[in-house]
């Protein structure tokens, strides 16, 4: 069960991410993909369907009522490049069928380099979610700023929300989506790191730390240090498609395999 959220600006990058993911799957388990959107053209939908059709996977497009987030501001400061679709992951349990108990959320700006079965099989029965600690790559000053901003203990961990293994059943039972929405509203709809701040503030002591390889963030690393990454996450405003990135060649490889650039 893979979930992502996109718009027309990021649909191409989602096709790349899904192509890389499906290329590396080695098990016979069927893969079900759910794409959350509020504004997505028919051409983007058709191109995403074509990319996925190459593999043993199904896809469902789930429309999200953007009015639920109309009072939620985009990221402040240097985070304004992040779109409102970032908030959609907070309501995933509200959108999926009742029988769904677990979901793996992935951002669009990702390349998958390994079979994700090991990640999917992680036991999160006693946790609300599993994620990768991002505070390990922050300076002490930046980490303290984040913790103080969210009124968290200074020795807390802070996860990146680009890869989330979500205990959907537990979220429903504990009404976590409502808790997250209320937290964002209590901040006047403005958070420095949007959904990521909300998730960390609400769930700060209720998540399982994953190995770094499952969400290796490029903003804090080099091409050499990223060699062991199972999931490569292009964090920050500089991406392989808009800058001189050491990962551009890898991105272009999966773009070609996705057939995105071929006309429909």
Written description of the protein model:
The structure is a single chain. This protein is α/β, with parallel strands linked by helices. The protein is 31% helix and 19% strand. The chain has helices at residues 11-24, 42-53, 92-95, 117-120, 140-149, 168-174, 176-186, 194-203, 248-258, and strands at residues 2-5, 31-37, 57-63, 102-106, 110-112, 129-133, 159-167, 207-210, 216-217, 231-233. The longest helix is centred in the N-terminal third of the chain and has 14 residues, at 11-24. The radius of gyration is 17 Å and the shape is globular. Mean pLDDT is 92; it is low at 76-81.
Write the layout of secondary structure elements.
Elements: E1 2-5, H1 11-24, E2 31-37, H2 42-53, E3 57-63, H3 92-95, E4 102-106, E5 110-112, H4 117-120, E6 129-133, H5 140-149, E7 159-167, H6 168-174, H7 176-186, H8 194-203, E8 207-210, E9 216-217, E10 231-233, H9 248-258
Parallel strand pairs: 1-2, 1-4, 2-3, 6-8, 9-10
Antiparallel strand pairs: 4-7, 5-10, 6-7
Helix pairs in contact: 1-2, 1-9, 7-8
């Amino acid at each position: 069960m893979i979930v992502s959220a996109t718009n027309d600006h990021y649909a191409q990058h989602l096709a790349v991410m899904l192509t890389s993911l499906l290329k590396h799957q080695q098990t016979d388990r069927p893969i079900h993909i759910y794409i959350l959107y509020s504004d997505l053209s028919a051409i983007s939908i058709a191109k995403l369907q074509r990319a996925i059709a190459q593999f043993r996977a199904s896809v469902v497009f789930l429309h999200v009522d953007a009015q639920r987030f109309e009072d939620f501001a985009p990221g402040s400061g240097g985070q304004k490049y992040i779109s409102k679709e970032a908030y959609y992951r907070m309501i995933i349990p509200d959108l999926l069928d009742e029988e769904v108990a677990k979901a793996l959320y992935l951002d669009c700006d990702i390349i998958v380099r390994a079979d994700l079965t090991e990640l999917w099989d992680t036991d999160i029965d006693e946790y609300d979610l599993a994620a990768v600690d991002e505070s390990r790559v922050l300076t002490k000053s930046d980490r303290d700023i984040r913790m103080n901003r969210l009124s968290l203990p200074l020795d807390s961990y802070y996860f990146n929300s680009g890869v989330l293994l979500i205990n959907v059943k537990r979220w429903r039972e504990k009404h976590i989506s409502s808790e997250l929405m209320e937290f964002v509203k209590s901040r006047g709809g403005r958070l420095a790191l949007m959904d990521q701040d909300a998730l960390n503030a609400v769930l700060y002591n209720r998540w399982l730390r994953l190995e770094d390889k499952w969400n290796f963030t490029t903003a804090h690393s080099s091409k050499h240090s990223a060699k062991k990454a199972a999931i490569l996450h292009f964090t920050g405003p500089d991406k392989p498609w808009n800058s001189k990135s050491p990962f551009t060649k890898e991105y272009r490889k999966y773009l070609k395999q996705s057939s995105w650039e071929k006309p429909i």
